[in-house]
């Protein structure tokens, strides 16, 4: 961003652009305003180092897309939630952290995911080698640990696995995963692909990469991929439909050099992007309208969403990328809101290509499966107003104390399915189904009951037995805010002409 401004400045100095006298005066006024704004920003106390960095960037370039803001909040080198480690010894997960995920609630969750992949391996012909286990966004590594413990009981599949891949951008979390899966004393080496160690329970190589693109795609490989609470953390763009009035009364003159797309003789419906900008100095929760539930434990937000006055490159393209978005514009009209996550579409396309092959990566025999577990609407609707901040198990404003709270948004499962099917003609998509239905069909209740009986058999206290039962009920709770209802499961598997549905999605285990 700064290099662009510097190049423009050098152009003026070299005579490549010489403003007329009125332009010079405007430029001088702009400089004085910039100096004033800079001094005001210096005086303002930002809530976190990342907030100050963001404000300085916005001051130089103007308001930024929400996706850029989210990406910085989560993965910035200076104070990013997953990469900055502002608070010494902070752990995002668990009771003492900011949120609890399903694998941390009960081992049953990870065990059932392992069973699901075993069922897919059986149904797809029991490939004897070339099997890969891939997890995107592995957290502390708990899910993979539970999956591996389960898969070890199925010796033939266990022996068919070549490697385990963990897609993780956070150095801190990579180390936590290595300690859990390989041991604290296990060495970790680095290569062009990523970081390497050996799993202590299976002796299989584990490779950590910062992006899934670093994992080689082989036509003979059978990848089993799980993405649990990963898609919800991908950055989103927000757009609002506006009624754009006519900008001309007659055809443009031949000397008019402005963009024809910005000139209309009739009112039009257009999408405008919601951008992030700093809140006015001295803002309060009351002046900003922060919901009471998000203002109890944080200072007033440093930033806010504002509507772009003109089209942006994102607003011209993304809302036109799907007939679902175009239908909302024509059906709802001015005021309609949509959230779009281009990164989710890119990841879905990658998953589908690994399972079914693509033009860039042909695969003679589609194999493997991808399982996405996250929260979002399962009825095909496009998410709106779903951006949330979570800190210490409470909802907070996503624009307050950037870097200290987890940011997430509902997953557009229909968009994920669209992208997967568009990427590969050799895959099919099942779901999304409610987590309660998926885990129930996988035999979760029976497994929880078996764990409770085992606890009683070894003389465990009643409280421990109750914890097992309580954890299972939490996973499948169908109440208004229950995990069993809010969370969904979606599967990408090889296309089979409707002959087979995966277990958990209306099908049964096939040996």
UniProtKB/TrEMBL annotation:
Alphabetized, the UniProt keywords read: Methyltransferase, Mitochondrion, Transferase
Q: What broad class describes the main subcellular location of this protein?
A: mitochondrion
Among InterPro entries, the record links this protein to: NDUFAF7, NDUFAF7_sf, SAM-dependent_MTases_sf
- Pfam families xrefs: Methyltransf_28
Its EC top class is: transferase
Q: Which reaction does it catalyse?
A: L-arginyl-[protein] + 2 S-adenosyl-L-methionine = N(omega),N(omega)'-dimethyl-L-arginyl-[protein] + 2 S-adenosyl-L-homocysteine + 2 H(+)
Q: Tell me its EC number(s), please.
A: 2.1.1.320
Q: Name one GO biological process term.
A: methylation
The protein's role, per its UniProt record: Arginine methyltransferase involved in the assembly or stability of mitochondrial NADH:ubiquinone oxidoreductase complex (complex I).
What name goes with this protein?
Answer: Protein arginine methyltransferase NDUFAF7
């Amino acid at each position: 961003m700064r290099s662009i401004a510097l190049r423009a400045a050098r152009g003026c100095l070299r005579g490549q652009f010489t403003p007329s006298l009125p332009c010079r005066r405007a430029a001088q006024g702009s400089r004085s305003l910039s100096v004033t704004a800079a001094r005001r920003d210096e005086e303002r106390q930002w809530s976190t180092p990342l907030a100050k960095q963001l404000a300085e960037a916005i001051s130089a370039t103007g308001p930024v897309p929400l996706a850029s803001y989210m990406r910085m909040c989560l993965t910035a080198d200076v104070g990013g939630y997953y990469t900055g480690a502002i608070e010494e010894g902070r752990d995002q997960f668990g009771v003492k952290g900011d949120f609890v995920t399903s694998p941390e609630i009960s081992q049953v969750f990870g065990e059932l995911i392992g069973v699901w992949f075993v069922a897919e391996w059986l149904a797809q012909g029991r490939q004897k080698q070339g099997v890969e286990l891939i997890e995107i966004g592995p957290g502390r590594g708990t899910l993979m640990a539970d999956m591996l413990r389960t898969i070890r009981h199925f010796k033939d599949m266990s022996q068919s696995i070549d490697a385990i891949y963990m897609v993780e951008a956070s150095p801190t979390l990579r180390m936590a995963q290595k300690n859990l899966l390989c041991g604290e004393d296990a060495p970790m080496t680095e290569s062009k692909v990523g970081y390497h160690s050996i799993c202590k329970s299976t002796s299989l190589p584990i490779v950590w990469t910062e992006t899934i693109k670093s994992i080689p795609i082989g036509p003979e490989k059978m990848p089993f991929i799980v993405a649990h609470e990963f898609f919800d953390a991908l950055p989103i763009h927000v757009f609002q439909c506006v009624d754009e009035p006519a900008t001309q009364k007659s055809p443009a003159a031949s000397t008019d050099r402005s963009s024809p797309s910005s000139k209309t003789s009739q009112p039009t419906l257009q999408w405008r992007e919601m951008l992030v900008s700093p809140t006015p100095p001295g803002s309060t929760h009351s002046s900003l309208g922060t919901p009471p539930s998000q203002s109890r434990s944080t200072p007033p937000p440093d930033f806010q969403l504002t509507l772009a006055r003109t089209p942006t490159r994102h607003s011209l393209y993304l809302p036109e990328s799907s007939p679902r978005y175009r239908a909302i514009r024509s059906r709802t009209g001015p005021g309609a809101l949509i959230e779009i996550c281009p990164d989710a579409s890119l990841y879905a396309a990658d998953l589908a290509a690994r399972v079914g092959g693509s033009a860039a990566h042909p695969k003679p025999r589609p194999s493997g499966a991808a399982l996405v577990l996250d929260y979002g609407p399962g009825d095909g609707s496009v998410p709106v107003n779903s951006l949330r901040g979570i800190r210490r198990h409470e909802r907070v404003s996503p624009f307050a104390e950037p870097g200290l709270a987890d940011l997430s948004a509902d997953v557009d499962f229909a968009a994920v399915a669209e992208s997967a099917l568009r990427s590969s003609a050799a895959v099919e998509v099942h779901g999304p189904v409610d987590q309660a239905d998926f885990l129930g069909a996988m035999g979760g209740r029976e497994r929880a009951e078996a764990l409770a009986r085992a606890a009683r058999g070894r003389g465990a206290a009643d409280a421990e037995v109750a914890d097992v039962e309580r954890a299972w009920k939490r996973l499948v709770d169908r109440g208004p805010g229950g995990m069993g209802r809010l969370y969904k499961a979606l599967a990408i598997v090889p296309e089979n002409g409707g002959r087979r549905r995966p277990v958990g999605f209306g099908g049964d285990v096939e040996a």
